[in-house]
Amino acid sequence: MPSNTASSVKAPKPSYRCSECGWSSPKWLGQCRECRAWGTLEEVAGALGGSGVTRAVPAARPSSPARPIGQVSAEAARARPTGVGELDRVLGGGIVPGAVVLLAGEPGVGKSTLLLDVAAKAAAVARQRGEGPVLYVTGEESASQVRLRAERIEAIDDALLLAAETELGALLGHVEEASPSLLVVDSVQTIASAAVDGSAGGVTQVRAVAGALIAVAKERGIPVLLVGHVTKDGGIAGPRVLEHLVDVVTQFEGDRHARLRLLRAVKNRYGPTDEVGCFDLGERGIVGLADPSGLFLSAARSEVPGTCATVTLEGRRPMPVEIQALVAATGAGSPRRTTSGVDHARVAMGLAVLAARLKVDASGSDVYVSTVGGARAVEPATDLAVAIAIVSAAQGVPTPPGLVAFGEVGLTGEVRATVGIQRRLAEAARLGFDRALVPLAGSQELREVPGMRVLPVSHVGEAVGAALPRG
C-alpha cells in the first residue's frame, strides 16, 4: 500500500490575534472578547505547529553575559532634568536616556506647544553640556508653521533642529545625521512606514512606527517624546499595545475655556504615577506653575458671602481651591441646580443634608456652585467647604478671613475623616490661612502646624456654627 505519511500530517492551524490588545483566538471573530474592539482580529499565519503548540526557538549566543545585579551600573538610567520643572516633577526628576514618553491629550489642549517649549529648553541645556542637538520632527504642520509658534513662545535656539517629515525612513535618516540628545515626534499617528501596508495612523502603521522609534531610542540611548492623539472616548488612538511598549504614558488635560493645564502620569517605569504638573496656557505659550494658587483663589474670597476655601489632593500634590456658591430666587417653576468644577451629585446630596439637618431650605431657590479658575474639586473632602459656601450664600454672611475647610459630609450630617489632612494643613498655612475646620476623627494624630489654628468638628452643623458665628 502506498504510504500516506505526508497526507496524514495536519496542516498548521491558523490563529487570530487582536491588534489592539494581543488577545488570541483559534477562529476569526468580528469582535475581540478581551477589549471589545470590532474588526481587529488578524490572522497569524504559521504561528502554531501541527500539534497546536508554539514552534521551538533555537538557543542563540547572548549579546553579553549575565552579571550580578550589584555589578550593573545605574548611571545610564539616571534621570536628567529637561529644563521644565513641572514636567520633571511628573517624570520623576527628569527624563531617562533611552526612555520613550507618550504624551496624549485632546486636540487643542496644547501638546505641541508644551513639547516645543520643552525642546527649546532641553536644547539650551544640551548646548551648555556640549551634548548633541534636539531634533523636533513634525508630521502635522509645516516647518514654517512650527517656526511661527516658536517665535510666539520664545522657543528658538541654535541647538534645536526642526524637520517636517511623514515617512519613517526619512525620520530615521535625520536621526542618523543629527545624532540628537533628544527626539520629539509630533505625532506618532502621522508617521508612516513604506515597508508596512496601511495608511498613517492605522493600527499596523502605529505599531511599526512606535517599534522602530523604541528600537532607536534603546540602541542609541536617545530619549524620545511622542505626541499621541486620543479618540472621542478619551483613549489613546492606535493599538493598545502602544501603551505597553513605551516607558511613560502621560495625559495632558484642561478645559479649552480655562488657562489651567494638568499633566498626569498614567504609567511611569522610572518614577511615581501620582504626581501632577500644573501649567498656565497664555498668549506666550505654556508656563509651568510651581505655585498655582493664584489661579484658584480670588482676592475677594473673605469679603463676599458664598465663598469657602479648601485644599484638594491631586495625587500627592495639595491644590488650593475656592468654592463659590450663589443662592438666588428662582424665576421659573422648577429651581435650577447648576455646578461647574464640582460633583453635581454630591452638591445635590449636600443640599438635602442641609435641608434635613440644619433646616437650610433652598428648594425654592436657584443654587449655583462653582470653583475659581477652572479647577476641579470632585473628591469627597470638599463636601464641607461646599456646605459652608451654600449656607454662607443663603444667609448672606461671609466666611471669616483665613478660613479653610475640608472633610466629607455624610447623610446624617457627620463630618467623616479624609486622607492627607497633614499635607492639606501645611499647604493652607503656606498660603496664609490661619484657621482650619477638619474632621474630628483622626485629628488627634495631627502634628502642630505653625500659624494654623485647627478646629476639629464632628457634625456639619458644628462646622457651620464655627465658620459663620452670626448664622
UniProtKB/TrEMBL annotation:
Keyword Transport found: no
Residues bound to ATP: G105, E106, P107, G108, V109, G110, K111, S112
InterPro entries in the record: AAA+_ATPase, DNA_repair_RadA, Lon_proteolytic, P-loop_NTPase, RecA_ATP-bd, Ribosomal_Su5_D2-typ_SF, Ribsml_uS5_D2-typ_fold_subgr, Rubredoxin_2
Top-level division of the source organism's lineage: Bacteria
Motif RadA KNRFG motif per record, residues: 267-271
Swiss-Prot/TrEMBL keywords: ATP-binding, DNA damage, DNA repair, DNA-binding, Hydrolase, Metal-binding, Nucleotide-binding, Stress response, Zinc, Zinc-finger
GO CC annotations on file: cytosol
GO biological process: proteolysis; recombinational repair
Annotated RecA family profile domain residues: 76-230
Bias (Low complexity) ranges: 57-68
Region of interest (Lon-protease-like), ranges: 366-471
GO molecular function, one term: serine-type endopeptidase activity
UniProt region (Disordered), positions on chain: 57-77
A Pfam short name: Zn_ribbon_LapB
Family note: Belongs to the RecA family. RadA subfamily.
Record-linked PANTHER family: DNA REPAIR PROTEIN RADA (PTHR32472), DNA REPAIR PROTEIN RADA-LIKE PROTEIN (PTHR32472:SF10)
Function: DNA-dependent ATPase involved in processing of recombination intermediates, plays a role in repairing DNA breaks. Stimulates the branch migration of RecA-mediated strand transfer reactions, allowing the 3' invading strand to extend heteroduplex DNA faster. Binds ssDNA in the presence of ADP but not other nucleotides, has ATPase activity that is stimulated by ssDNA and various branched DNA structures, but inhibited by SSB. Does not have RecA's homology-searching function.
Domain observations: The middle region has homology to RecA with ATPase motifs including the RadA KNRFG motif, while the C-terminus is homologous to Lon protease.
Protein name: DNA repair protein RadA
Gene: radA
